[in-house]
Design goal:
Mean pLDDT: 93
Bound molecules: guanosine-5'-triphosphate
CATH topology of the largest domain: Jelly Rolls
Catalytic activity: 2 GTP = 3',3'-c-di-GMP + 2 diphosphate
Number of strands: 17
Distance between the termini: 77 Å
EC number: 2.7.7.65
Cofactor: Mg(2+)
GO molecular function: diguanylate cyclase activity
Keywords: Membrane, Transmembrane, Transmembrane helix
Radius of gyration: 61 Å
Largest sheet: 6 strands, antiparallel
Number of helices: 8
């Protein structure tokens, strides 16, 4: 049981560690990136506001390294210049970025502008026309240049992009198309921001990367919760089954023990019975009759119920043994016991006193009725057809307990009566009148 708990605790600990790792490492592990290197055969262009009536100038400083310089000049209300890159070198076929969460920009900027603008231009035949470059949707964001870190790094959430107002107004776009759309981005633009003063602006685009989560944070946490629920359910089911198994084993053991106890009880009782019986005749032995004698004596003392005993001794038994053999003698002893046991009351107790001598304990019996019983038994024995076909007789000594007499005295008188019966021709009953 203890080892099972330890195992369970280890599993819970492992699950906790895995859960913590899953939560902590999620931003790194479950993320996929779409990296755009401007030098990878993308069509790029830099532009200024001259075509719009301005006077600014733009020049490549180091084209292979995406470095350009913009000289903003006055004399035009909204001066600008910028850089654009075709993702697939096509105005129509772009890249689906709708599943990405954010854009990472690596851009060096040096100049007096306060903000920089980024456009993610989406082509959609629902609102774009092949002959009009400006008909691609201008998803835009304008960020403060201070947000760029030392090395030019900035992460922008795509949800922060909105559609440029001027574009919505210029194309009279219906409401359903007026939201940001990244399904087919064909051009990425980086432009000077609004509120520009004349001056020199230096840009270098070092890289663009789009980032998305393979599994959303919500789904990931839901998955972790489901895993925990499954683990708890699994544990509960396992516990129920193991407890059931344990209970069944316990019940089986209990029933085995009960059976064993019953068997032992039975054996103990058998042994007890055997210990109180004579093995040859089945009659009680001395120990077996002792209890009955003590009880009867007690009855005599307490309730004056008279205790009487009969001593019975087979006549000339030695001769019978000698004539018919010891085994035949045994058989006579057994037959005699059966005969007597079946002709006495249930309260009487018949015991083998030793050899061919027997004792009959009669509780609550007067001398006269005990003598009558002895006489009845004597006649029964005399007339009984023993298997050995020999005549079997017995002599009886009867005695009833007297006031202030103990068992020793009672037995002594019964013995004397028996001796008297033996002495005077045997096969007779002598009652002690003392
Ligand atoms: N077969 C058999 N004989 C037994 C048993 N116990 C005692 N005896 C025999 O009983 C005989 C008793 O002999 P005795 O004491 O001389 O008495 P008896 O021959 O019956 O003579 P009386 O009692 O005087 O009539 C002996 O021979 C014993 O061996 C027994 O369990 N089986």
């Amino acid at each position: 049981m203890l080892s099972l708990l330890l195992k369970t605790e280890k599993k819970i600990l492992a699950l906790v560690i895995v859960t913590v790792l899953a939560i902590v490492l999620r931003p790194w592990v479950l993320v996929s990136n779409h990296v755009i290197d401007p030098r990878d055969d993308h069509t790029r262009r830099i532009y200024d506001d001259v075509l719009n009536g301005g006077f600014s100038e733009v020049h490549w400083v180091d084209q292979p390294n995406e470095q350009w310089k913009c000289i903003i000049k006055g004399g035009y209300e909204y001066p600008f210049c910028g850089y654009e890159m075709y993702l697939n070198n096509s105005f129509v076929e772009g890249v689906d970025l709708s599943s990405y969460r954010s854009m990472r920009l690596l851009l060096d900027y040096d100049g007096p502008a306060k903000t920089v603008r980024v456009y993610l231009r989406n082509y959609d035949s629902a609102y774009s026309r092949d002959d009009d470059l400006k008909s691609t949707k201008y998803n835009t964001i304008e960020f403060e240049k201070e947000l760029l870190e030392e090395d030019g790094y900035l992460e922008i959430s795509l949800s922060d992009f909105s559609v440029a107002d001027w574009w919505l107004q210029m194309h009279s776009i219906p409401l359903r198309h007026s939201y940001s759309d990244f399904k087919n981005i064909v051009i990425i633009e980086i432009q000077t921001g609004s509120g520009l003063n004349p001056g020199e602006h230096n840009f270098q685009l070092k890289g663009i990367e789009f980032k998305r989560e393979i599994i959303s944070a919500e789904s990931w946490y839901l998955l972790i919760i489901l895993c925990w629920i499954a683990a708890i359910l699994g544990f509960l089911v396992f516990r129920v089954f193991s407890l059931k198994k344990e209970l069944m084993t316990q019940q089986r053991k209990e029933s085995e023990l009960t059976q064993l106890n019953t068997l032992l009880d039975k054996q103990a009782k058998n042994m007890e019975v055997r210990a109180k019986r004579d093995p040859l005749t089945g009659a009680f032995n001395r120990e077996g009759v002792e209890e009955s004698l003590v009880e009867a004596l007690n009855e005599w003392h307490v309730s004056a119920k008279r205790l009487s005993i009969v001593l019975l001794d087979l006549d000339h038994f030695k001769q019978m043994n000698d004539t018919h053999g010891h085994a035949a003698g045994d058989k006579v002893l057994v037959e005699l016991s059966t005969l007597i046991t079946s002709n006495i009351r249930s309260s009487d107790r018949f015991a083998r006193w030793g050899g061919e001598e027997f004792l009959l304990v009669c509780r609550d019996s007067e001398l006269s009725e005990t003598t009558s019983l002895a006489e009845k038994l004597r006649v029964l024995i005399e007339n009984y057809q023993f298997h050995s076909s020999t005549q079997v007789t017995a002599s009886f000594g009867v005695a009833s307990i007297n006031v202030d007499e103990n068992l020793e005295g009672l037995f002594k008188r019964a013995d004397e009566a028996l001796y008297e019966a033996k002495r005077t021709s045997r096969n007779r009953v002598v009652a002690s009148e003392g």
